[in-house]
Design brief:
Layout (H helix, E strand, L loop, with lengths): L2 H11 L7 H20 L3 H19 L13 H8 L6 H9 L1 H21 L3 H18 L11 H15 L6 H11 L1
Helix pairs in contact: 3-6, 4-5, 6-7, 7-8
């Protein structure tokens, strides 16, 4: 055998001498492809979770007649009065108490719009901003008094919106479809 044949034989055997050098390269390429796909779609589960949750929250409010009342059990007015003194910004609660029914509808329709925008990836960054603002306002009012802070869910929702606010909806979204259509023209 010549020196070149020996070198070729070493390559075919692989680094460990088992003859799996080709399989190692193939597995690494497969892993790299999988990792690229996983990275590309990594925000999709978050989008689906937040979108479904906010659509559900909006529809839940819109279908609950007691929620939109100024007073009474389960009403937005009663809830706002209950959290006013323990909220971080009582003036924000006072603003909502000027018209609890209107505030309730604003929150319900806001959650529905944010959820649908997030699910469909339509104006995804704007939807994420809306979701973050709703979560921030709920954290500063309704769940501010929760101790320890990590038991309150509104802060976690606020943090969950931030990656979508930064990245938008780069895959499986109407935003992407519209961007591609504009690029073709």
């Amino acid at each position: 055998m010549t020196g070149q044949q020996d070198a070729g034989s070493d390559e075919a055997r692989g680094a460990d001498g088992t003859g799996d050098g080709g399989r190692f390269v193939e597995r690494k390429a497969t892993f790299d492809q999988w990792r690229a796909i996983a990275s590309r779609y990594s925000l999709l589960p978050l989008r689906i979770f937040l979108g479904v949750t906010f659509v559900y929250a909006g529809l839940d409010k819109l279908t609950d007649s007691a929620f939109f009342a100024d007073t009474g059990s389960g009403s937005i007015g009663e809830m706002m009065r209950g959290v006013r003194d323990s909220s971080a910004i009582p003036a924000l609660v006072d603003l909502a108490l000027n018209n609890p029914t209107g505030f309730g509808y604003a929150i319900a329709f806001g959650e529905l719009a944010v959820g649908l925008g997030t699910l469909f990836g339509l104006y995804a960054r704007l939807a994420a901003l809306g979701g973050a603002l709703i979560s921030l306002s709920l954290w500063l009012t309704v769940s501010w008094q929760v101790h320890p802070y990590y038991l309150g869910n509104d802060l976690a929702y606020l943090m969950s919106w931030l990656p979508l606010l930064l990245a938008g909806a780069p895959v499986l979204s109407l935003d992407r479809l519209l961007a591609e259509r504009r690029r073709i023209r």
